[in-house]
Every structure is written in structure tokens, then in C-alpha cells.
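Records of this kind hold a single protein each, on a pair of labelled lines. With that in mind, the following record should read easily:
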Amino acid sequence: MALNQALSGINAAQADLNVIANNISNANTVGFKGSRAEFADVYAVTGLNLNATAVGGGTRLSDVAQQFAQGDTQTTGNSLDMEINGNGFFTLNTGAGLAYTRAGDFKKLDDGTVVSNDGYKLQIYPPTGNGSFDTSTLTNLQLVSSQSTATATTKASIVANLPASAAPPTVTPFSPTDANSYTNATTFAVFDSQGGTHQATVYYVKTATNTWDTHLYVDGQSADTTPPQQLTFNSAGQIATPTTGTLAYNPINLGNGSNPLSLTLNFSNTTQFGTDYTPGTINKDGAEAGTLTSIDIDSSGVVTANYSNTTSTVLGQVAIANFANTQGLRQLGNTNWAASSDSGTAVMGTANTGQFGSITSGQLESSNTADTTAQLVDMIQAQRAYQANAQVLSTDNTLASSLFNAVSR
């Protein structure tokens, strides 16, 4: 019987060594989770009330339990590298279902699809357009690598000061080519619907006390209304009319195939003080076409594409999954797991909320067996267990030989 007991111990020690060897071999595998060999004794009851004299039958491997402790952080600086700090798994579309991983070393394909090293597609919640995300739907993360759409300028806010002491121009009527026919001017760039850049100029003509006519020209073409749009100021130098501070001008056909340009200017922060004229600042909408320059992923997994024209687009929010029993997950290999009856169905959510950890872009989670010191200690213990059971085999063989020699005499 001792032979079988020792043999079971050798097999158990060998299984333990196999698990430890696998842990050590994956010390540099991103997102790898080590395992632990767990054993149970083999015990056969010989009969009623005879347990006190029964001897165990050895040991057996009862489970190889996955250990989901957090791995160390590795900084990469690559925005598509992501680490989950805390609970949760990235969700992947394998083409045959969903898989889950802690390995956040993702890459972009030629068509912009973000995939894992296995080519599985990273899943996100799509934006709804009102600042939130549709958490009932999973879709692939697709980086828009082509140029972002150009948008025409439709409105601009002008913060300037018109001099209260200015006299009306000596030359009438107004002409943009005659500087003596207007008091001051503000020039800024605007964009058409194709992203083309044009020069817009607002001319200010003081017509009476606290009263100014405005004239808008784009590339020399007039957008004036009849009569001209007018600004009036109160005795404190603040805008009196229009009460909203906004003036709308006529559309301009730029003659380049773009849509007519319609501009509304906001003068609510323009003043008329006794100081000199200051053109101030211009804040406007619209943008030329731009190429993708960078990807930002915040701690909640919101993915934002930034373009060279200073615009940005929210692409979605990374979908995070968690499970009631992570040790019950079924291993697929390549640091991927699938849900099982033991793990329970995936609980879906977003990073940095509830039971889910936060996401850090530009970092990776190293293998939680990267510190091989503990693994080497376990290996020594398994080796000693193997040697001890081998010694039992040797001792039992010696005893059996002695017995056979004695009987044969």
C-alpha cells in the first residue's frame, strides 16, 4: 500500500511542479494570472466504526485554482495600452462569442479596428450623441484614421472696445477700400463647409453718440443687410441694442462649391469706453479638415480621438465585465477567459464605477507571477515533496526485498 501512497505523492508533486513551471514561464506575459495546485487526501473507509484504524490512501490533485491578484504596473506611454486597476476584464469579440482578458496591450488594424494580440476585437459602448453611452449595446472600437469632417463657421464672439471719443468718419458712404470711411476694423479667419479658410472683416462706423454701424465682408464680398446692422451703447459703455448682443448677416456665396456662408456675430462683451480701440479676442466655431493625432482614454474608459484641427470626437466607452466567481472562469489560453456555469454570467459595466476598477492608459498589467522568488520557493517545496515520496518508494522496496530474502532461506 505504501507504494501506491508514495506514487500518489510523486504524481502530486509532479503536478505541483508543472503548475509552478507554467507560472514561471509566463512571468513576462502581460495580464497573465498564475495558478495554484490544490490537493486532497485519499481516504477509504474499511467498515463500520473502523475509522480509527483506517489508513489514508495517499493524495490527489483536486484543483488548479487560478489566482487573480493584481499584477505590477508597467508604463509604456502607448495610449492603446490599458491597465485595469481593480476588478474587471476587458471584453473581446472573438467572432464566435465573447472572451474576457486582463491583457490590455491592444493595437490598431489598417481599417482602424482595435484588437488584442489574438485579433479579437475590443468592445465598447457606443456614444448616444447627447454625452452618454448606450450600455445595452456592444460594438467594436473603431479609430477614425481618416480626416475629420470640416465644419463651417456659423458664429463668432467678438470681445473688443470701441473708443467713446471717436468722431464719425469724414468720408461717406462707407467703403472697405477707403480707411477714411470707417472708424475701426476687426479681422479674423473663418471656414467654409469644405474646410477652406477665408478672411472676414468687421468694419465699425460711428454714426452718432453711442451709435455704430457694422459692416461684414468675407474675402471682399459684402454680407451687409439693409440698413446696416447697428450697435448702440448705454452711458456706462455697455451694449444697449441689440439686447442679445447678436447680429445676423446675409449669406455669402464664396464661389468655390461650398455652401453659402452665414455668420452671426455676438457683440455682448464688446464695450465703448473712453480708452483706445482694442480688437480684443475672437472666439468662433468651425474647423478645417483634420487628421487623427492622438487617442485619449480616461479613467472611466471614455475613448476620445483628437485631430490636427483642434477638434475631438468621443468614440465610445470601454466595456468592462466582472464575475461572481472569477476562479470559475474557463481558460481559453493567450490570457483569455470565457464565462462558465461556475463563474456565472458576466456582469457588464463601466470602469471607475461600483465594483469595477479604473482604467489607466499608457500602462499594462504585468503577470502576477513576475516576482519569481515566491515561485522558486514553492518549487523547492515541491521538489522536496517529490524526493520524500521517492524515498518512501525506496524504503518500501528495501523492506520488501528483505522480506523476500528472509522467506526464501
